[in-house]
Design a protein that fits this description.
Structural class: alpha/beta
CATH topology of the largest domain: Rossmann fold
CATH class of the largest domain: Alpha Beta
CATH superfamily of the largest domain: P-loop containing nucleotide triphosphate hydrolases
Radius of gyration: 18 Å
Number of strands: 10
Number of domains: 2
Distance between the termini: 37 Å
Low-confidence stretches: none
CATH architecture of the largest domain: 3-Layer(aba) Sandwich
Strand order of the largest sheet: 6-7-8-3-9-10
Largest sheet: 6 strands, mixed
Helix content: 25-40%
Order of helices and strands: EEEHEEHEHHHEHEHEEHH
Mean pLDDT: 93
Number of helices: 9
Strand content: 15-25%
Length: about 240
């Protein structure tokens, strides 16, 4: 039984078909990397999984249950957490308060349990020194960490990561990958959209490449990266 399965999901905005009958399955504990050029439909695919957008056709199954009609908060409650490409913290709240809020409303924890969850996630993501700082004043790296931390505070079993390494320096990206490896080791299923390919290759078990809303390639990461059509479409390299 796949942890997550998409069955011919499609989404259009007016005449533009952003996601065109995409099907994929992700096993429990697997890390699936998503690649594709800008405008390929990657974030829309995430929105269809998280419930931020409704499918026009097809269905979404999570742990063998059809969740196509569930709203975003309901999908969060059943174990689907996500980060966003542009961090979206509550800027006037402290880092700790952001995590308590995520634990209360995402994981449905009571106050004492939410505080414990927030503390654990602060340690896990290296944000303890910033716990009482306003989230809006953090550096890019720490905003990225907080975006990850807020998703983790919802206690996801499936974690969607949208370009979380974008804009980071090489050492910062390496540090982020180490944190994600620890999350993977705990058995969390991850789907990661990323343009920092070397970071993605260090963690992904499989790659899924999208172009113009359709699947272009899928398989073992290095084999997919070496595919001539993937290199042409994604990297602009003629084989």
């Amino acid at each position: 039984m796949p942890h997550l399965a998409l069955h011919a999901v499609s989404k259009s905005y007016g005449a533009l078909k952003v996601t065109d009958a995409i099907s994929l399955a992700v096993a429990e504990g697997e890390t699936l990397g998503i690649l594709g050029p800008n405008g390929a439909g990657k974030t829309t695919l995430f929105n269809l999984i998280s419930g931020d957008a409704r499918v026009d056709a097809g269905r979404v199954e999570y742990e063998d249950v059809d969740i196509t009609a569930l709203k975003p908060h309901q999908r969060c409650h059943v174990g689907i957490g996500r980060s966003y490409q542009v961090p979206q913290p509550f800027g006037n709240m402290s880092v700790f308060e952001n995590l308590v809020t995520a634990a209360c409303f995402g994981a449905q924890h009571r106050e004492e349990e939410a505080w414990q969850t927030a503390h654990e996630v602060l340690v896990q993501t290296g944000l303890m020194a910033h716990a009482n700082k306003p989230a809006g004043g953090l550096t890019l790296l720490d905003r990225k960490r907080l975006e990850l931390a807020r998703a983790l505070a919802t206690r996801p079993r499936l974690l969607l990561l949208d370009e979380i390494a974008g804009g980071l320096t090489e050492p910062e990206a390496k540090q982020l990958v180490q944190e994600l490896q620890q999350i993977k080791a705990r058995g969390v299923t991850m789907i990661w959209i990323e343009h920092v390919v070397h970071a993605l290759l260090s963690l992904a078990d499989r790659l899924f490449v999208i172009n113009f809303g359709q699947k272009l390639a899928e398989g073992e990461p290095h084999a997919v990266i070496g595919d001539p059509e993937v290199r042409r479409v994604y990297m602009g390299v003629e084989a």
